[in-house]
């Protein structure tokens, strides 16, 4: 059930048989969520952390006027709230953007890992550090990249992350977000998003049709985005 997590962690270092066995033992309960349901609610104090097995989810904040800002996208293999273990109270929500299959790891079991399995602890810690690195890239994109480059960067990032967990097919991947949700991610109006997408289509770097993104010109897309995947720490080395 947790193959996507094993692929994610295993892209950064080798997991021992004992570590893999321990993860399989503690992540056993699963549940399905429909699009639009909260996987984790703002203000909650979960006694477990949630692993996304399949689907797309988003971290988000809601403003006083009811507007929403998506601050992260999660894909298969992501612990969407591993940080809830030490933080305790969630200061944001996590919503399903598509039908999602998730599993849970009790915080008591995660605590036992931190006390007895230092290498696995470091890999799980790294998982939260990569979340932080992604947040920094998103802040840079919001503040300094053109919307054209911002969209290109997001497509590059998602393609690489989904490749790691074997959720791509050739140069294509499923992308179930609506244009309204995509506008939330980018912090722009739907009209502005449409104009930027049309410009990128004319450049022939990728297509977005029937909830599928297909990369047509990977080199050019990376050039537009100024994309360097180093922040994703996808390199297998001792941790």
Question: What does this entry look like structurally?
Answer:
It comes from Rhizobium ruizarguesonis. The longest helix has 27 residues, at 118-144. Helices cover 45% and strands 23% of the residues. It is built from nine helices and eleven strands. The radius of gyration is 18 Å and the shape is globular. By secondary structure, the chain is α+β, with helices and mostly antiparallel strands. It has helices at 3-10, 17-26, 84-87, 107-116, 118-144, 147-164, 179-186, 190-203, 218-225; strands at 27-33, 38-40, 48-54, 57-62, 68-74, 93-96, 100-106, 168-169, 172-174, 206-209, 212-215.
Strand order of the largest sheet: 2-6-4-5
Q: Mean pLDDT, nearest integer? A: 93
* Unreliable residue stretches: none
Helical content, roughly?
Answer: 40-55%
The biggest sheet amounts to: 4 strands, antiparallel
Distance between the first and last residues' Cα = 25 Å
- What is the number of E strands? 11
Keywords: DNA-binding, Transcription, Transcription regulation
Domain HTH crp-type: 145-219
Organism: Rhizobium ruizarguesonis
Pfam families: cNMP_binding, HTH_Crp_2
For this entry, give a set of tags.
239 residues, alpha+beta, four-stranded antiparallel sheet, 11 strands, 45% helix, globular
Give me a quick take on this structure:
The protein has 239 residues and is α+β, with helices and mostly antiparallel strands. It is 45% helix and 23% strand. It is globular.
